[in-house]
Structures are given as C-alpha cells and as structure tokens.
Amino acid sequence: MLTRYATLRIAQAERYSSEAARELDDVSETLCVMTGASRVQDAIALADALLDGARPAAGRAAPRADGESSLPLAV
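The line above is the sequence of Methionine ABC transporter ATP-binding protein; the predicted structure tokens follow.
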C-alpha cells in the first residue's frame, strides 16, 4: 500500500488524473483503516514503523546525517 500510495502521489505531481485521484483517495483510506490512523500522514508513519520493526536488525539501513536512509526507494 505504501508503494502504491507513493506511486500515485508521484503520478499526480507529474500530471493530474481524476482516475488516479480517486485511486489515491482509496489507497489513503485503506492505509488509515489498516493502521487505525485518522490522517494519511499518520498512517504512513505507522506503516513505516511497522515495516522497520519487522525488518531484521542486520537489514536495517542506518540513517544518514540528513535523516534519510541509504535504502533505495522502489516506486
């Protein structure tokens, strides 16, 4: 769901589509339901934390000084 959300956000930023906007709304709502959050920003943070906690410690990327991880973003 996080990947789909990111893909749709990028697509909307590049060129607006009413179909993609509806799908983005659906994905946002699904993320909120899955995490129990009322705002999509909170749902994303919760989902990220869940994924981070599920990853073995050796597989975690250390944050860089700029707050980003060294993991590539798959979109």
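Note on the example: Residues 1-54 form one domain. The two ends are 11 Å apart (CA to CA).
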